[in-house]
């Protein structure tokens, strides 16, 4: 919090008996509850989405009433502005009258007020009048004349802030800041708890998850394609495919986060995700989805012109195979996010399949074929990692003392079965690799295939370590994050790469 003098953490001085009116959306709560409610409809009652245009035609206040009636937001886990809420509680404890004044529908505002228990009264939209801007100012003047303090955050609050006795802002947007500057309105306090937007966007697109897309380079590397005449062109195609996959994957992560906002807010770690925490608006997230999907598909369409430009053994036979794999991946990911991730066992098989699709997409992007050995190994290897993910989530559920389903179709009692399935898949992957080493096909690519046997114990050690840590509850619920941050995993990865190089 910053006061009028620019000093942080110094509470503003208000005159005795001055009532404080605080806005809800973007102010007391860091998100827009109307948008949150529409997203809840998309998740819980998708059959009602077609009714939204008709509701909008009835007017803003009626639209808000219809949306609020269709779903019930969990007000307990809304992303409250904690510095502001703490200050309001202090004021309430000192006997100051507080009022929740919002353009949100009255039904939702009443529930928020009842949950917090600090407000003397509520002023809100009633289905006929949208309590924003001039309507809100008129309501204040009817109740308090000009003797009130108001806390807002957006451009429509500018005229109310200019008319009140002690204006305050919370996470103000740039339009409000400009309007207040033009009007000469100086806030007596600023409650700003926002995370820098650039940092929030990096977190929202989950840049670290792009590490999964390096699987696109696997066919190129395992075929030792760097000796081909058109390697530069083929490698450029793989890089283009990597970027295309990354953009589309990030778009699906944002879609998933938008639809899972309410569930994420109840999760001890996921509640800090940018959209759940209110660091980024859902509307900006939707715009970013459109932008990233468009860019990703554009790169996929352009890819054949990059790879097929140079002749060579890996020229594309089917120019748009990669585009097909990309569309399949995106559609499968969205289906997983919307439906399949809550279906027993379907979720882990789809997750493992998404990893394998990346390898097949790499083949489609470069023209390098994928052997049956690589396909078989990847199916079992990534199936084991998918089981690790679910096992770790259930282990965390058990550690928290919860024995109920976690929304994924699993019970804590399934832990032992998941461990058996996951470790079985892990060792099956190693068996596939040993069979490949002893197969004559390995001699086509390696001068010393016998040396590849040294990879086997290293891979066994890593997979065993992953499952041991998962059993102890020490595994991150995303094995990819673990693999790229764990020092032992990185060391073993370098060791395996060195052995493979030695076998060439």
Automatic annotation (TrEMBL):
Asked if the keyword Transmembrane belongs to this entry, the reply reads yes
Q: Which SUPFAM superfamilies match?
A: HAD-like (SSF56784)
Q: How does it sit in the membrane?
A: Multi-pass membrane protein
GO CC entries: plasma membrane
One Pfam family from the record: UbiA
Note whether RNA-binding occurs among the keywords. no
Known Gene3D superfamilies for this protein?
A: HAD superfamily/HAD-like, UbiA prenyltransferase
Q: What UniProt keywords apply to this chain's record, in alphabetical order?
A: Cell membrane, Membrane, Transferase, Transmembrane, Transmembrane helix
Listed GO MF terms: transferase activity, transferring alkyl or aryl (other than methyl) groups
Among the GO biological process terms of this entry, one is: glycolipid biosynthetic process
Family matches, as NCBIfam families: PRK08238.1
Name the chain's protein: 4-hydroxybenzoate polyprenyltransferase
- Per the UniProt record, the source organism is Granulicella mallensis
């Amino acid at each position: 919090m910053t006061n009028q003098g620019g000093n942080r953490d110094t509470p503003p001085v208000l005159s005795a008996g001055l009532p404080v009116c605080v806005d809800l959306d973007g102010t007391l709560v860091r998100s827009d509850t109307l948008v949150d409610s529409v997203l809840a409809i998309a998740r819980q009652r998708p059959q009602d989405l077609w009714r939204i245009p008709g509701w909008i035609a009835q007017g803003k206040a009626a639209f808000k009433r219809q949306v609020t009636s269709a779903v019930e937001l969990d007000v307990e886990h809304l992303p409250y502005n904690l510095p502001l809420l703490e200050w309001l509680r202090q004021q309430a404890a000192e006997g100051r009258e507080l009022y929740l004044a919002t353009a949100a529908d009255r039904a939702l505002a009443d529930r928020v007020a009842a949950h917090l228990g600090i407000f003397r009264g509520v002023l809100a939209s009633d289905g006929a009048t949208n309590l924003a801007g001039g309507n809100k100012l008129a309501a204040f003047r009817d109740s308090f004349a000009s003797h009130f303090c108001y806390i807002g955050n957006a451009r429509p609050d500018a005229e109310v802030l200019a008319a009140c006795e002690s204006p305050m802002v919370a996470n103000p947007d740039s339009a409000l800041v400009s309007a207040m500057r033009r009007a000469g309105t100086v806030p007596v306090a600023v409650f700003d708890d926002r995370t820098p937007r650039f940092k929030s966007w990096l977190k929202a697109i989950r840049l670290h998850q792009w590490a999964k897309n390096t699987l696109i380079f696997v066919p190129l590397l395992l075929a030792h394609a760097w000796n081909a005449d058109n390697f530069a062109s083929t490698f450029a195609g793989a890089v283009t495919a990597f970027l295309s996959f990354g953009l589309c994957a990030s778009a699906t992560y944002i879609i998933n986060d938008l639809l899972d906002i309410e569930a994420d807010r109840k999760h001890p770690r996921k509640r800090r995700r940018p959209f759940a925490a209110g660091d980024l608006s859902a509307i900006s997230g939707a715009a970013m989805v459109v932008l990233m999907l468009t860019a990703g598909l554009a790169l996929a369409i352009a890819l054949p012109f990059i790879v097929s430009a140079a002749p060579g053994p890996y020229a594309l036979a089917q120019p748009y195979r990669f585009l097909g794999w990309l569309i399949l991946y995106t559609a499968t990911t969205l289906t997983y996010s919307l439906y399949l991730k809550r279906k027993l066992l379907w979720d882990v098989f789809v997750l493992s399949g998404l990893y394998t699709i990346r390898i097949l997409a790499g083949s489609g992007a470069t023209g390098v074929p994928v052997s049956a050995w690589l396909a078989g190994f990847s199916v079992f290897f990534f199936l084991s990692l998918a089981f690790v993910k679910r096992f770790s989530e259930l282990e965390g559920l058990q550690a928290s003392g919860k024995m109920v389903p976690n929304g994924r179709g699993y019970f804590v009692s399934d832990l032992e079965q998941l461990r058996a399935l996951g470790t079985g898949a892990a060792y099956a992957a190693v068996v596939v690799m040993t069979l490949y080493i002893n197969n004559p096909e390995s001699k086509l690519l390696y001068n010393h295939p016998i040396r590849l046997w040294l990879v086997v114990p290293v891979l066994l050690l890593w997979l065993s370590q992953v499952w041991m840590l998962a059993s102890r509850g020490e595994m991150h619920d995303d094995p990819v994050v673990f693999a790229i941050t764990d020092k032992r995993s990185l060391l073993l990865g370098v060791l395996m790469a060195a052995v493979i190089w030695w076998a060439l």
